[in-house]
Write a structure and sequence with these properties.
By secondary structure, this protein is mainly beta. It has a domain at about 1-40: Rubrerythrin, domain 2. The protein has no helices and 3 strands. A hairpin with a 5-residue loop joins strand 1 (about 5-10) and strand 2.
């Protein structure tokens, strides 16, 4: 069951909603159905507490800055 972020066009609030299957989502604050899904960063759980987000397909810096390598900064 994914957790999605939405913006309510009625009350202008940003909210997170746990969506089950094809469930119709409504704003928990105002009951509005004018919701737009927002882009959000994915979450990941790892063993050891480290997540390598820089997967460089070619030599050189990835440009993302999330891997901690100085050349990607």
């Amino acid at each position: 069951m994914p957790l999605y972020e939405y913006h309510c066009g009625t009350c202008r609030e940003d909210i997170e909603i746990l969506v089950r299957g094809e469930e119709q989502v409504v704003c928990p604050d105002c009951g509005g159905q004018d919701l737009g899904r927002l882009l959000s960063a994915p979450a990941a759980h790892t063993r050891g507490g480290e997540l390598n987000v820089c997967e460089r397909p070619a030599p050189g810096p990835c440009g993302m800055g999330g891997c901690g390598l100085p050349e990607c900064g």
